[in-house]
Amino acid sequence: MRVLLCTLIVLAPAAASAQAGSALGEPSADAALANAVTARPGDTGAIARNPGALGDVDRPVLSLTAHAADLDLWFARTDEGGHEMGRTVAGVGGGLVGRLPGPDWLRRVRLGVGVHLPTAHVLRLSAPPREDRPTLVAYGDRAARTGATAALGVELPFGLGLGVGLSLTPFLRTSTVVGYDATRGDTPDDNVVIDVENELLIESAAMAGLRFAPIAEVALGLAWRGQQDVRAKGPNDTRAGAVVVDAEVDFFELFAPEEVAAGLYVEPVGGLRLSGDVVWARWSRFRTIHDRRPSPRFEDVVAVRVGVEWTPTRFYRVRAGWGFEPSPVPEQTGVSSYVDGDRHVIGLGAGVDLEELDVARLRVDLHARWHLVERRRHTKDPASLPDAHADLPGRQIDNRGYPGFATGGGLGQIGVTVTFPLGAREEHP
Amino acid sequence: MLAAAAFSAACGAPPESAPSAVVTSDPESVCLGDGFATPIVLDASDSAPRLTLVPAPPDPDAPPLRYRWTLSGSRWVLVEGVLDGERLVVAIEGDRPLHVELSVSDAEGGTATTDHTVAVTLPDPASGRCTGSDP
Amino acid sequence: MSRLALAAVLALATAAPARADAENGLGLGPRAGALAGAVGATPIGSSAVHYDPAALALGDAEPGFAELAVAFLWAHPLLWVEGVDGQEAPELAADPEPTAALLVGTRFDLGHAFGLRGLHAAFALYTPAAHIFEYDNHPDDRPQWLMWTDRTQHLSVWAGLGVRVTEWLSLGASVRVLFDIELFTTGRVLGVEETTDPRTGEMTVSAETELGEELTVFGRASPILGAVVTPVPDLSFGLAWRGATRVDDWGWARVGGEAAGLGNLGYVYRFSHYYRPHEIALSAAWEVRTDLRLSSELTWAMWSRAVGGSFDRLPGRFGDTLVPAVGVEWAVRPGLDVLAGYRFVRAPFDNLGGPTNLLDNDRHEPSVGMEIALDRLTGEDLPFVLSWSFRLAALSSREERKDWRRFESDADLTHNPGYPGYRHGGVVPSAQAGVEARW
Is the pLDDT of residue C153 over 80? Predict the structure, then answer.
């Protein structure tokens, strides 16, 4: 019953929103094409991928997406049996895009909004007090993050579209002061005095994009997406009798790197559409959960993605995609034990347009996607590990990844997107 | 309040209770390559049924806590005690640290988990001998 | 406690931003704001998802229509507190910071996709402009405004359906989602330092600690059900039930570590930051002439089951309330409507001279507003409705005197931060401006 209720809870707000750039929450069409979509004609996925492509949306469109993935990664210290770091990652999202009504000049403007929500919770932030725990990079809390994005696209002459967008990211400012007043109550619990002030601020990451389609069959796309991260800061002070604990909350989580994506779209023959993307991601700005620069630091990476869509009739279409995403994580010789590897992304999908069949005014797209993460080994360098007990003579090692570890695994995902066209289709002004 | 709240539903719920899980080990570190030579005492007796901000006298009527030890990392042998006891003694191969997880449960269903690591002491680079483990 | 000390305590307590309740104190959107919330039986667009989801099916709209509404809400509470003896203490006249928020709503013809007439869906999102939430929690005996602190400072999301079953009956259901917070904090002690005060000989143990946290934000859904009956074309009656809800905030914090030798110290907590009671609202709307419509609403709010911020029954008393509201719309000319309203809200809480110091007042709330439909006013193809509203909540002055019979000892009485008593009141002007686009 609780699962049903929670599903209802997340379905409700999801429908109010749109695709928002979550690591696994794209619309089915984008997922099936392995996200090789920067230069493709826009739909609700363009809100988070390339707002410059929104100019192709010719009537208000609401899309709802639901997806579920089985994460199957493992971590094994050298010469030990490994343990699974898998879990199920599910989420819902949606997109609402509409051209502004009114005179021709105003109708060249499109607005899009969207949200993606994990089904299990709205936000999860795991910050262990020790940084040497095995930590997922691409598939940790980031894989099931809540995202909200608003975008504006303008349709310009000569097949040019420009767009800008904002993705909202939270920043938690927190203050907790705890004291003990033995005169307040009858039990130790009654005597605890807690003053809490929590403020979840909204910060934003900008994005911009353009799409240039000199003819309908060929287009170029270029998109820039700013870095996103979630931080939490503030004092956490406790006074209990003679014991004083003045600690500081200072966390950095849910990092999504700054990206620049360039894409090409061609329709060489009627009904066959090809697309390809090259994406540079600035992972070198990654910071640890305690807001420190990792040692060794992460590397920037370049990913490649290609997709193909075939529409044999107006009623249905099939899609496939492949991408290669290099890991930004260097060999883990120091304190941290990040679990990540180069991965191949394979997507398959199909869509049915029930409006063309006069069944209902909606489209349904399905996808299946696999991430194949390559097996990888790391060896710790004792010289890079801190002395665990400085009060004891000699050098003590208590690192959880020592003497080394291997990682690997993958992910399988299925998803569905239902798109509702609203209002009447309009000719472009 | 509960009747009123019955018409709203949340996906999370507060824990039933919060015991306190505390691990101490003696020694805290052994020489790298100890070879099962050093007995290591792992003790959970400082754990308590309730998490309190100041020391509180134990409730004599409280049911006993339940313990569960999980050991990983270095290969180990149990010298004394059992893995669901309050105290146990182990020895380890010592080619790497021993990672200890203690889970404490109370009669109300509350559970607390804590981690502890028994470190290994690297040999002195000059002499090649281990000089730093606890006595 | 000296008057000066009392003044200082009360000034601190009231320095926190004070804001009105979003749905009832401000109104969700300029139309609800201008009609003082008397909107259950009138077409109100996507905001009906909160007031009466059956009203989502009301109004004249083209098949396949879609609406998007955006409104900016602003409020600037001007509240005051003074010692019970009326002493000169200008610092007690707290002047809280203003608040700003954004409301985004959409309503569309969902039934059009399936060939069903009169099935409309809506979503709405309310968020403070600067943050997603802001929650303060302090012990209940700390003087603090009960309804005017952080009640507007949280994200709320609604989703609902309204269906016109027959020409005279519409039904609706929606869900309101708030967000609970679970936070488990673990402090790992890296080292301790003992110091002794040379004068008092008092020893202090300072622990250097690295924190870890497990934070999870969950959704909390509460239902809203409604019906609108239209026995004759110009007269509608509405009935809505809005389920109780709250923001639940729980967790524990524990500090320990092998370096400390302290064992574990910590605490468990549970807070309720925001409580909305069950509400049953009866509403009516009468189109007196083609250019004049009257509306009214009477809301019963079941505050008697409310809890305080520390999730406990308070020594003071929460009581159920009846909130009457009336509104009027006058079409000055085609495309230009003037709106006005009034509501009276009785304070649901009384400290009754006891240990709590939660400040709350009865309030009178007159309001005005305007709607401008650009296409009808100008004859141009501009399907936008501009609107604004202004509401003034006037808080009746109220006095709280501490009653020694409600304290266990004289020390408890005189140490109470509100002793010997205080008076409080003020006004809260609020305004909204919005635009709605239709396709």
Answer: no
To the nearest 10°, the Cα dihedral for A254, A257, A258, A261?
-120
Q: Which residues 364-403 on chain C approach chain B with CB closer than 8 angstroms?
A: none
Both structure tokens of B120: 């290994």
**Contacts of residue B29 in chain A, CB cutoff 8 Å?**
388-389, 392, 396, 398
The full DSSP string for C212-231 is EEEEEEEEEEEEEEEEEEEE
First to last CA, chain A: 50
pTM score above 0.90: no
Q: Does B64 touch chain C (CB under 8 A)?
A: no
The dihedral built from the CA positions of residue A268, A273, A274 and A276, taken in this order, carries a sign that is positive
Contacts of A75 in chain B (CB under 8 A): none
Residues of chain A positioned with their CB less than 8 A from the CB of B124: 394
Per the CB < 8 A criterion, the answer to whether C316 and C352 are in contact is: yes
Residues with Cβ within 8 Å of residue A18, at least 6 apart in sequence: A44, A47, A63, A93, A94, A95, A96, A97, A112, A113, A114, A115, A149
Q: What is the pLDDT of residue A75?
A: 93
Q: How far apart are CA B130 and CA B118, in angstroms?
A: 16
CB spacing of A249 vs C213 below 8 angstroms: yes
> Which position has the token pair 């505050």?
C303
Q: State both tokens at C71.
A: 């409104």
The ipTM, to two decimals, is 0.83
CA pair distance A224, A212, nearest whole angstrom: 15
Q: How many Cβ atoms are within 10 Å of C218's Cβ, its own excluded?
A: 22
How far CA C222 is from CA of A8, C104, C271, in Å, comes to 11, 20, 18
Query: How many CB atoms within 10 Å of residue C379?
Result: 10
Q: Write the residue in A15, A245, A361 that is nearest to C187 by C-beta.
A: A245
- Please give the backbone phi and psi of residue A357, each rounded to the nearest 5 degrees, phi first: -85, 0
Bridge-based pairing state of the strands A134-136 and A337-339: parallel
Q: Where are the beta strands (DSSP E) in A216-298?
A: 218-225, 228-240, 243-256, 259-269, 272-281
Please give the structure tokens belonging to residue A200: 């979840």
- Identify the three-state secondary structure at position B56: coil
How far is the C-alpha of A309 from the C-alpha of A300, rounded, in Å? 30
Distance of CA C303 to CAs B92, C316, C317, Å?
A: 62, 13, 9
Distance separating alpha carbons of residues C397 and C424, to the nearest angstrom? 6
Chain A residues touching B51 at Cβ < 8 A: none
Which two three-digit tokens encode residue A382? 């004792």
Contacts of A141 (CB under 8 A, 6+ apart): A124, A125, A126, A253, A254
Give the pLDDT confidence of A155-194 residue by residue, as tens digits: 999 999 999 999 887 788 888 888 887 777 777 777 788 8
* Burial of B135 from C-beta contacts in 10 A (0-12 / 13-18 / 19+): exposed
Alpha carbon of A406: minimum distance to chain B alpha carbons (Å): 14
C241 touches chain B (CB under 8 A): no
Rounded to the nearest angstrom, the gap between the alpha carbon of residue A84 and the centroid of all alpha carbons in its chain is 22
Of C434, C287, C433, C375, the closest CA to residue C62 belongs to C375
Alpha-carbon distance of B21 to B44, in angstroms, equals 7
Residue B9 pLDDT > 90: no
Beta carbons within 8 Å of A383's beta carbon, 6+ residues apart: none
